[in-house]
Write a structure and sequence with these properties.
By secondary structure, this protein is an alpha/beta fold. It has helices spanning 39-51, 66-69, 98-114; strands at 2-15, 18-23, 26-32, 55-56, 62-64, 72-77, 119-121, 129-143. Helix 1 packs across helix 3 (98-114). It starts with a strand and ends with a strand.
């Protein structure tokens, strides 16, 4: 499983001109599911997302967890994170099919909510417009 996590001041998802999800300070998480992923990877990546200390403390050091920072999460499914770009036209055979990836995506969302986070989501499989005001910018790639 792969997540591209960006620390944001705000982020949103718009579908067909309607804002369907919006957060303030927190993490915008683009989440890709690999063909070999299982629930174990979903739990592990949720744990990493919820525990990553990348908010600044009083000394300007990245030392504050998202829970302590009062962060919100916006998690968006993105199969293109597993693009094979060995040719000019990307292939996506490493990305899990929707019947596998959607339940694992939902598991990550549920795990983050179970840890007490306000979690907003995109709509699985929809054509989404994702907006964000990046903070820092701080962007981290997580692979589990």
């Amino acid at each position: 499983m792969r997540a591209v996590l960006t620390r944001v001041l705000s982020a949103s998802v718009t579908i067909d001109g309607t804002c369907v999800a919006q957060i303030g300070k927190g993490f915008l998480v683009l989440l890709g599911v690999h063909v070999d992923d299982s629930e174990a990877q979903a739990v592990k990546i949720a744990d990493k997302i919820c525990g990553l200390r990348i908010f600044e403390d009083e000394n300007g050091k990245m030392n504050i967890s998202p829970a302590d920072a009062g962060a919100e999460l916006l998690i968006v499914s993105q199969f293109t994170l597993y693009a094979d770009c060995s040719s000019r036209r990307p292939g996506f055979t490493a990305a899990a099919r929707p019947e596998v990836s959607e339940p694992l995506y939902e598991r990550v969302v549920a795990e983050c909510r179970a840890r007490g986070f306000q979690v907003e989501t995109g709509r699985f499989g929809a054509d989404m417009k994702v907006g964000s005001v990046n903070d820092g910018p701080v962007t981290i790639v997580l692979d589990v």
